[in-house]
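Sanity check record (used in CI):
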Amino acid sequence: MPKTFALFFAVLSILTLPCHARAGQSITRVSDRQAVPLQEVVAKAEAADLVLIGEVHDEARHHDLQLEVIRELKARKLPLAIGVEVMQSDYQKELDAFVAGTMSEAEFRPIFARNWSYDWRLYRDIFMFARENRIPIIGLNVPKELVIKVSRGGYASLTPEERKNLPEGTTCDLNNPHTEFLKQSFGEIFKHNAKGRVFQYFCEAQTLRNSGMATNVARYRKKAPKTKIVVLSGVWHAVKNAIPEQLARQGAKLSTLVLMPEIREFSDGKASPDFVDYLASFPSR
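Expected output for ChaN family lipoprotein:
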């Protein structure tokens, strides 16, 4: 495996490492650091156009929380759709068939595995709840081949034909708050590699995914303007200066709510309402 490619995916693993949360399960409102019941989060989510719930991909409790919020919103009989990072937008037909019940779970699992490397069982309850309740699932991610190519050689390495196949409006802008956020957290890892080029390519790949997922959210909302979309993604895509920021840059005027698990970077009062609305902490294991 080429060194640049291996480093890129090593850092993606760092981005999703679990951390020890404070003792006692709780939800914290970031604006005033007050503990609140989950029902407050759900009430705020009910009023928002877009609800983003971050995850550490291999942490089952984060997915349980995502499903709990989805269940609560469904119980309120709201028009609802679920946008997922784990599926690429070019697999939408397969997603639609699975939700409609015309594709079996056994048939869908290999398709899921082609899109995502984490265990299907971590996401199964969410997908099956959507299927049982006919809640549309939207594949948000851009094709992984393009992400890999950008991580190796930057956005400039894409051919005009490859760029044309990206969702309309996709951009790769390094001059945005999210890139600075990544630089503060992960720049040390890259600074001695290829004179900063590896970090630049990493940021470009992240921005490509944020912009592409934002475009797919906006596209679905245009088609179904009264539908609330719950986005399930890794924490660094769900923060306000990632997908929501890219939506704003594309001119989408959506009210948002961001719920995050309390990872290391957000612990001990480091979370800001500029990035997150609510934090969920879980008992230490």
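The beta strands are 26-29, 34-36, 50-55, 80-88, 137-141, 228-234, 256-261, 278-281. If this sentence no longer matches the regenerated tokens, the check is flagged for review.
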